[in-house]
Design brief:
Blueprint lengths: L12 H13 L2 H23 L1 H10 L5 H45 L4 H5 L3 H43 L1 H48 L1 H6 L3 H26 L2 H25 L5 H42 L11 E4 L13 E4 L5 E3 L4 E8 L8 E8 L4 E5 L6 H8 L7 E6 L2 E2 L5 H6 L1 E4 L8 E2 H6 L7 H10 L3 H5 L8 E2 L8 H15 L3 E5 L7 H15 L3 E5 L11 E6 L2 E6 L1 H7 L2 H8 L5
Parallel strand pairs: 6-13, 6-14, 9-12, 12-13
Antiparallel strand pairs: 1-2, 2-3, 4-5, 4-7, 7-8, 10-11, 14-15
Helix pairs in contact: 1-11, 2-4, 2-6, 3-4, 3-11, 4-6, 4-11, 6-7, 6-11, 7-9, 7-10, 7-11, 10-11, 15-17
């Protein structure tokens, strides 16, 4: 079972903040506008409250002539504050969506650069959680909390400054209460941060389980595992409850604590301020304005503490996202590229279409000859999967791999594709070490039909065209005819324009496999890898497409992995693998004459279990 990337508490808070700020910096002009509007809005609130002083003093002194003007000025200040508040919220929405677009795009692009080992070790639900739960927490913070937290901070600071301006003696009491407030906020925030991180990790784990159970619901029901699945769900759901309870327990105490302290502060200041006003140590207007500031002081602090909860959750989600983007990408040190050469301009080859081109300009014909020389490989660097594999495949040859499950058949094809790199030995492609070839060009020259067919949302034609995105409709139909898929496609309600539902759920397993074969046919690469490509096709359909497959494989180098030994009888060479080694090799007739493992398998049953 995959484990979440993050630990129990944030490991690199500084790195997360720097990375997050770098995304904000991409839209500095929008954020600058937000900052100006927030500053004006907060300043208007502070100045409007301060205007109580001249208004009250005007009333006390009986100077009624200036009162309307002061009241109108105060109203104007508040109107400006309201307009700026509306402006920064709308601008922040635009900036937040742009930042989220950047994060999602970078995360998706980066995931495509990660090696298959990453996806082997992380469940789909965990990966999807980065795009949903974690990015959603960032979205909530940016849309609702970021600007509000800044405004609250400005108001807190401004309020404290104006309190000292109005009455520095009373402000000493306020400072003590502020200190108690911030001490508790810091203490509670530190505890909440740890639990929020646990909550995000537990949520990703729960999402992964749900996705697995939904995708495998048929298997769950076949084996009556509903109760066991529910027990596993309850366990992870309980872990999420505990983490969520821990986070909210600390976070929810912030506002009540701040409010309680602010009430105590207001009561003390009111009594002392009243005494000072009676003794002439302060004027009534200053005291009135001061008390309003003290009473309002709790509001920005409450807002700041409330928004800090969202910001803590956002930092926890951002850290998980940035940790993924900090994973080392799939290495690609290749320098040889695949280029199309017009007819008559290629050097050293009669094939005018494609050549391998080295950095020095040397061109090598693309024939599709593959050689493995002493290949050693292990997934975990401990348990050997392939041990000294050596073989060659000339242009146009069909090489078949047979053997029991776990003998390394699929691993060989994964190494040719460079989904993984060999630990020892080498794989040569047209005389070039595959590690010298850029991975994108190497894989462009290879066609692969996997045992587990994956279809994408779109039409039948779109799924076939996935093998070559610029293929014409005629080329798509020709590829479907080669794979013997044209007949069933034409019987569909909209033919080639029929929409494929989730992973081809509206098609049979055999039909999905035929579309995968058609996808490889439209790509028309020099090397084909068929990983049990006919495993989901019945014998009648297999016989029908045999001619088409022969046509597809004509002139191509083909590697075939098959459980049905009947499908490899016409191979030029058959490699029999056992415990990661080639124990027999030869064509069908030669292997039967050897009366070894292949002969026993062939005479005992036509399929390997």
């Amino acid at each position: 079972m995959a484990r979440p990337l993050s630990g129990k508490k944030p490991k690199r808070l500084g790195y997360t903040l720097r990375t997050f700020l770098s995304y904000l910096g991409r839209h500095k002009f929008l954020l600058l506008a937000v900052a100006v509007l927030v500053f004006v809005s907060a300043g208007a609130n502070l100045l409007g409250t301060y205007m109580i002083r001249p208004v009250v003093n005007g009333l006390v002194s009986g100077n009624a002539e200036t009162l309307p003007g002061k009241v109108a000025l105060t109203a104007g200040i508040y109107i400006v504050g309201v307009l700026c508040s509306f402006g920064y919220t709308q601008t922040m929405v635009q900036a937040a969506q742009k930042v989220l677009v950047d994060i999602r795009r970078d995360l998706f692009c980066y995931l495509q650069t990660l090696p298959l080992r990453f996806f082997d070790n992380h469940r789909q639900g965990d990966v999807m959680s980065y795009f949903t739960n974690d990015v959603d927490t960032i979205a909530d913070a940016l849309n609702n909390s970021f600007a509000m937290a800044i405004q609250s901070f400005i108001q807190m600071t401004g309020t404290l400054v104006l309190l000292f301006v109005l009455n520095w003696r009373l402000s000493l009491v306020v400072v003590v209460c502020y200190g108690v407030m911030f001490w508790y906020i810091r203490y509670s925030g530190r505890r909440s941060k740890m639990y929020y991180q646990k909550q995000q990790a537990s949520l990703g784990s729960l999402d992964g389980l749900i996705q697995e159970m939904v995708n495998g619901q048929k298997v769950v029901q076949v084996f009556n595992h509903e109760q066991a699945s529910l027990a596993a769900f309850d366990e992870k759901n309980e872990a999420l409850r505990k983490a969520g309870t821990g986070a909210q327990s600390y976070a929810s105490t912030m506002i009540p604590a701040v409010v309680s302290i602010s009430y105590i502060n207001y009561a003390i200041v009111s009594v002392l301020g009243g005494i000072m006003a009676l003794t002439g140590m302060t004027d009534p207007g200053s005291l009135a304005s001061y008390l309003v500031f003290v009473r309002q002081a709790a509001a920005p602090i409450n807002q700041f503490t409330q928004q800090s909860n969202f910001l803590l959750a956002a930092l926890a989600g951002a850290e998980r996202v940035f940790e993924v983007m900090d994973q080392p990408p799939e290495p690609d040190e290749g320098t040889v590229c695949l280029v199309r050469v017009p007819a008559g301009q290629s050097r050293g080859t009669d094939n005018p279409q494609w050549v391998w081109q080295k950095p020095n300009g040397e061109q090598i014909p693309l024939h599709g000859e593959v050689r493995l020389d002493g290949v050693q490989f292990s997934y975990d660097l401990k348990t050997p999967v392939l041990q000294g594999i050596s073989l060659y495949a000339h242009k146009g040859q069909k090489i078949a791999f047979v053997g029991s499950t776990g003998t390394g058949k699929t691993t060989i094809t994964n190494l040719i594709n460079r989904f993984y790199d060999v630990q020892d030995g080498q794989i040569l492609y047209d005389g070039l070490d595959v590690r010298q070839i850029r991975k994108s060009d190497l894989r462009r020259s290879l066609g692969m039909v996997l045992q587990d067919t994956h279809l994408f949302t779109g039409t039948i034609a779109d799924n076939i065209r996935f093998g070559r995105l610029n293929a014409t409709d005629e080329q798509v139909r020709r590829a479907a005819c080669i794979a013997n898929a044209d007949s069933f496609i034409r019987r569909l309600p909209k033919g080639y324009q029929t929409m494929v539902s989730t992973d081809g759920a509206n098609l049979s397993q055999g039909q999905r496999q035929l579309l995968a074969i058609a996808r490889a046919a439209v790509a028309d690469p020099p090397v084909l890898i068929l990983d049990e490509a006919t495993s989901s096709i019945d014998t009648r359909t297999e016989a029908l497409i045999e001619k088409g497959m022969d046509q597809l494989m004509e002139g191509h180098t083909v590697f075939v992995i098959a459980h049905r030994l009947s499908t490899v009888r016409n191979a030029d060479a058959i490699m029999v693998l056992e415990h990661g080694k080639i124990v027999e090799r030869g064509n069908h007739q030669q292997l039967l004459e050897q009366k070894g493992l292949y002969c026993q398998l062939y005479q005992g049953m036509f399929e390997l279990s």
